[in-house]
Automatic annotation (TrEMBL), chains A, B:
Assembly: Homodimer.
Cofactor: Mn(2+); Mg(2+)
PANTHER family assigned: 3-ISOPROPYLMALATE DEHYDROGENASE
Originating organism: Sphingobium cloacae
Lineage: Bacteria, Pseudomonadati, Pseudomonadota, Alphaproteobacteria, Sphingomonadales
Name this polypeptide is given: 3-isopropylmalate dehydrogenase
Family membership noted in the UniProt record: Belongs to the isocitrate and isopropylmalate dehydrogenases family. LeuB type 1 subfamily.
Chain's gene name: leuB
Catalyses which reaction(s): (2R,3S)-3-isopropylmalate + NAD(+) = 4-methyl-2-oxopentanoate + CO2 + NADH
Binding site for NAD(+): G276, S277, A278, P279, D280, I281, A282, G283, Q284, G285, K286, A287, N288
Top-rank taxon: Bacteria
A biological process from GO: L-leucine biosynthetic process
Enzyme class of the recorded protein, top EC level: oxidoreductase
PROSITE patterns according to UniProt: IDH_IMDH (PS00470)
Length: 347, 347
């Protein structure tokens, strides 16, 4: 089985290196690795954030372990050359439509959250975000209005097939957890959301065991602060999912700890920490690699079916934390490599 | 000067009644009032959430004091008949484009927030939300794709004139406060946001005394949890403003306390609490009227230029709180009328 390693920009190479050490330590038979260039690093080396060789490797691979993209040097490039296009392009080209972002407080780290410990401590939710459609991928551009004004526009849309498949992801995830699904939209204003809501309700008929509710996105943003413990699984579109999943991760308090998976319909997946490339601390050995290590665990579970090994990694991370492993973002002084050492020791 | 009173649905009539009592107690010369039907109440009485007489009254008035709209009985009506269309229609028809939502912790209530007291206590920000454009008012509808699929779509757009005027609102507000403006967009994905950012940067040249920064909306949703005290004024579009302002209000912890103003270019304004119609407690005398009372104070300040009277109301609310006035949402047992009594006593 082939794993594509895409370290990317900023702290990406450092954190992916630690995840690779942990994978190596498991000595899993038949795993091979190939590395590819993405993001600003790829633009600088090959003139494009997602070069054809990288895309070809991604398509060939069983799974992708991704670091982060984003590089201030590239901020003034044309949109299609910016580092972010690597992740958007991979999602689209591989049909990676189901982005799973679990947010759960690690008991040892409950104090890190800006939320009161009793509020943060109750967080155990999963955001299922659609990542192939919505206003991200509709027609967009600049035009001149009838009055000669510059105007920017982006078309938001979802069709029933797109909504149906992500709704299934949401219901299935809820079924495997506590059986509660909250669909988030803005159906009081948007027709895209109305279609979303209609289709989610249709799909619900196949999941009588899951309790479905609907919430407007503005209310969801409030409820994630007021009482995030009320949520089990949230399913939502690309744009609202972008906002709410980042908000939820910050409610947990330790964004350096949170992993994500983005899956297509054939078991292929891209696995990445939810934090960014953190150019300010790149190359200094200060980055917390645990979100990437936990992303590797998700990869073993979702794309490779290696549940026992995934459990082992997760248990090792918990143990390392319990033993006091703390990078600077967690209020400690351990380096990126020392954090990797701590996980290896706990494995 | 004419004030239009639009109580609306749910708890609207109860809370507007208390704000009216407070206004009456100030015995301001030359103020007259006319009441109009909006929302579900208007639909039930007149077949439309924003009947022509209501709209005419709104246009004639110097200011509108608005309760809340939203009625579960109306959930299955066609979109253009739903209660929410009253507020959207008023914003659009009167050109009310600049929605000001201050979020500040009342020292007595700092403990109410789900955020740690030291985090919540530092909140003193103003969200300036554009409310005449964006995906709210673009072309929208249902269509069938080439493959015969149902699709919902909504066009997001901003032109330079729309962005320029709200940018001025943001810069002017920042100048009158602590001189910091953060413009929130999603320019790494949306062309609408790229135009937004370009124009905000152009307008910045006229405000060398204001420190401008830019933030992506996903990051803003994180920062509002992590460290909301970092913000002075946030300026953003209609959709992001909807989400972030509700999130910010919940960070403060007492959504029953927060007022808002929505202004057009001629000093006319609509003033409303940021909370909704709360149908579950309607008619029970449990609603906290203070957000509406504080909205009346904003009305005196922004549309009527009566700064001293606005200050008096705000001081009275602070005093009532300091004296222990607490409705159920603030952990107390006082009724809507008793909360009004407390403000009157403190006036
Ligand atoms: C980098 C950016 C385009 C991306 C997104 O908006 O999807 C990121 O914020 C994410 O959430 O993965
Ligand atoms: C009722 C709804 C249409 C409205 C909006 O989305 O603008 C409300 O949420 C608000 O923020 O005033």
């Amino acid at each position: 089985m082939l794993i594509a390693l895409f370290p990317g920009d900023g702290i990406g190479p450092e954190i992916v290196a630690q995840a690779k050490r942990v994978l190596d330590a498991l000595a899993i038979d038949g795993l091979t690795y190939e590395e590819g260039l993405v993001g600003g690093a790829a633009y600088k080396a090959a003139g494009h954030p997602l070069p054809p060789e990288t895309l070809a490797l991604a398509k060939r691979a069983d799974a992708i372990l991704f670091g982060a993209v984003g590089d201030p040097d590239c901020d003034s490039l044309e949109r299609h050359l910016r580092p972010e296009q690597a992740i958007l392009g991979l999602r689209k080209e591989l049909g990676l439509f189901s982005n799973l972002r679990p947010a759960k407080v690690f008991p040892e780290l409950a104090g890190e959250s800006a939320l009161k410990p009793e509020v943060a401590g109750a967080i155990d939710l999963l955001i299922v975000r659609e990542t192939n459609g919505d206003v991200y991928f509709g027609e967009k551009g600049f035009r001149t209005t009838a009055d000669g004004l510059r105007e920017g526009y982006d078309i938001m849309s979802y069709n029933e097939t797109e909504v149906r498949r992500i709704a299934h992801s949401g219901f299935q995830a809820a079924r495997a957890r506590r059986g509660k699904l909250c669909s988030v939209d803005k159906a009081n204003v948007l027709e895209t959301s109305q279609l979303w809501r209609d289709v989610v309700i249709e799909v619900a008929a196949e999941y009588p065991d899951v309790a479905l509710s609907h919430m407007y996105v503005d209310n969801a943003a409030m409820q994630l602060v007021r009482d995030p413990g009320q949520f089990d699984v949230i399913v939502t579109g690309n744009l609202f999912g972008d906002i709410l999943s980042d908000q939820a991760s910050m409610c947990v308090g330790s964004i350096g700890m949170l992993a994500s998976a983005t899956l297509n319909g054939s078991g292929q997946g891209l696995y990445e920490p939810i934090h960014g490339s953190a150019p300010d601390i790149a190359g200094q050995g200060k980055a917390n690699p645990l979100a990437t290590v936990l992303s590797a665990a998700m990869m073993l579970r979702y794309s490779l079916g290696l549940h026992a090994q995934a459990d082992r990694i997760e248990a090792a991370v918990e143990k390392a934390l319990a033993d006091g492993a703390r990078s600077p973002d967690l209020g400690g002084g351990m380096s990126t490599v020392e954090m990797g050492d701590a996980v290896l020791a706990a494995l």
